[in-house]
């Protein structure tokens, strides 16, 4: 089994190293100095291997640090319940949720396809070895991050081990459950196709985690310890079941069968494309009273209404619940009122990251490419600067409208909370509102500009532009840094508005000048 894991790791690492080298060859200045025989260069491959190993190590901890900050540290300090019992209560609920939505036993991936289907590796050894490696990663990552968290919530170090075993045990038990369910239903359950009743249960658990802390309903420490011991013991039984599970080969064929299309120059993206086509509303393909690109855009928006508006509507409903809960909370709980007041005064830079996370333009551009631009890019008139700029402006208007809905809920809720908390300065409220709206407009513009100037997709809708990936990663990193910034309110708000305006103007100019050369299908 160790040999199987090493082979699988080499496959994954080779794919990653070649991607790094390919990425270097796509950087405008560097690519001129890199020969076509670069993939044979031993020194560069060694460098890429070092980068790959570093990323593997960083990836163990980075995601967990962000996860703990956003789902534990910030909510607990916001509702002023920064104690051990609050942390343990949230941890128990979210660990249960994570065991289902972040369980890698039956994850569909290209690595599994290459190893099991193409290279005909032993399915049981491959799946089990990868699952054990994932559990070890979770164990190490949780131990290190919980050790850091222990200083914040002042709990003993032995509890780090208890909580880590709780997480790992739950993941193994869920893996056992999914294996057992496959034998009886021949359906592979992953984080992406959880049954609806279970989805409802997990959603209830998510809100219950924070509601219990808010109303001071806590899980005792001993109950969490007992739960951890139970999960650990059941997890051991689950490991035995997972090792002896008899249907890995059949399960992998069912799970990876759709990926046979790769042999016919297809890709996993076709599955996504089919799901997009299923959500197209054929009943709305009627007629439009508009002309030119306005008509083209209106028909596209009508046909893809479910795809385009689905996430924005969900975000809006969730944000409404959060805003209404906060409005009620500040009037019912006096201690919460003061705590939120202090947070709101300093929190405007936080909304850079929040608006980044809420923006849906990146997903919509994918739908645009699959269902429109992939075909239209074959026509010369589509590349003409005036036509390109016209359609860009129309699409930008639509992106802004879509993303403004959740942004308005946040902005209006922010202003209402300011007034309820006794901050009645008109200038403060006005600039807060305008700043949040400006952030939404900026991210709508930003991702549409990247789509036009760095068009990342190839004919199979795979992202093939490393510069696009680099810039989107940098965008995430910069937005995350804003959470730690403490800037004068008016300086920050005026800077945000001015930057948004300048960015939109420059973006339109760049699309007009560079779009005809850059907006194309990648090889």
From TrEMBL:
The keyword Phosphoprotein does not apply. The chain crosses the membrane at residues 53-78, 84-105, 126-149, 155-177, 198-218, 224-243, 316-334, 340-358, 404-424, 430-454, 466-483, 489-512. The keyword Phosphoprotein does not apply. Keywords: Membrane, Transmembrane, Transmembrane helix. This is ABC-2 type transport system permease protein. It comes from Longibaculum muris.
């Amino acid at each position: 089994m160790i040999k199987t894991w090493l082979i699988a790791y080499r496959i994954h690492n080779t794919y990653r190293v070649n991607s790094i080298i390919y990425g270097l060859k796509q950087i405008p200045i560097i690519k001129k100095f890199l020969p076509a025989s670069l993939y044979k260069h031993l020194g560069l491959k060694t460098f890429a291997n070092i980068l790959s190993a570093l990323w593997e190590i960083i990836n163990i901890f980075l995601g967990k640090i962000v996860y703990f900050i956003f789902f534990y540290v910030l909510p607990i300090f916001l509702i002023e319940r920064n104690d051990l019992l609050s942390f343990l209560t949230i941890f128990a609920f979210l660990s249960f949720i994570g065991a289902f939505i972040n369980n890698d036993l039956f994850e569909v991936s290209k690595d599994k396809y290459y190893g099991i289907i193409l290279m005909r590796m032993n399915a049981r050894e491959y799946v089990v070895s990868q699952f054990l490696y994932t559990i070890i990663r979770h164990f190490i990552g949780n131990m290190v991050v919980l050790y850091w968290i222990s200083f914040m919530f002042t709990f003993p170090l032995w509890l780090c081990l208890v909580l880590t075993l709780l997480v790992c045990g739950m993941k193994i038990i869920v893996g056992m459950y999914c294996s057992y369910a496959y034998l009886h239903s021949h359906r592979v359950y992953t984080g992406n196709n959880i049954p609806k009743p279970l989805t409802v249960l997990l959603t209830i658990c998510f809100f219950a985690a924070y509601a219990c802390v808010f109303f001071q309903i806590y899980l005792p420490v001993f109950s969490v310890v007992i739960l951890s011991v139970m999960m650990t013991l059941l997890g051991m039984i689950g490991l035995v079941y997972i090792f002896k599970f008899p249907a890995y080969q059949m399960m992998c064929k069912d799970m990876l069968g759709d990926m046979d299309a790769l042999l016919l120059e297809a890709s996993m993206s076709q599955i996504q494309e089919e799901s997009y086509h299923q959500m197209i509303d054929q009943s709305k393909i009627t007629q439009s009273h508009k002309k030119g690109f306005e008509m083209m855009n209106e028909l596209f928006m009508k046909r893809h209404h479910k795809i385009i508006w689905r996430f924005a509507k969900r975000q809006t409903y969730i944000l409404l619940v959060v805003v209404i809960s906060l409005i009620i909370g500040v009037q019912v709980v006096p201690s919460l009122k003061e705590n939120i007041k202090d947070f709101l005064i300093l929190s405007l830079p936080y909304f850079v990251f929040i608006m980044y996370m809420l923006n849906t333009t990146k997903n919509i551009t994918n739908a645009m490419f699959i269902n429109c631009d992939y075909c239209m890019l074959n026509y010369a008139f589509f590349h003409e600067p005036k036509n390109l700029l016209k359609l860009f402006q129309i699409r930008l208007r639509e992106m802004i409208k879509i993303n403004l809905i959740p942004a308005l809920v946040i902005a209006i809720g922010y202003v209402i909370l300011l007034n309820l908390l006794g901050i009645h300065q008109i200038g403060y409220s006005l600039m807060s509102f305008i700043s949040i709206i400006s952030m939404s407009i900026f991210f709508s513009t930003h991702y549409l500009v990247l789509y036009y100037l760095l068009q990342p997709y190839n004919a199979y809708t795979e992202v093939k532009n490393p510069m696009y990936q680099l810039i989107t990663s940098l965008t995430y990193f910069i937005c995350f840094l804003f959470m730690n910034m403490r800037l004068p309110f008016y300086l920050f708000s005026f800077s945000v508005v001015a930057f948004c305006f300048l960015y939109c103007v420059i973006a339109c100019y760049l699309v007009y000048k560079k779009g005809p050369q850059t907006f194309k299908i990648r090889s």
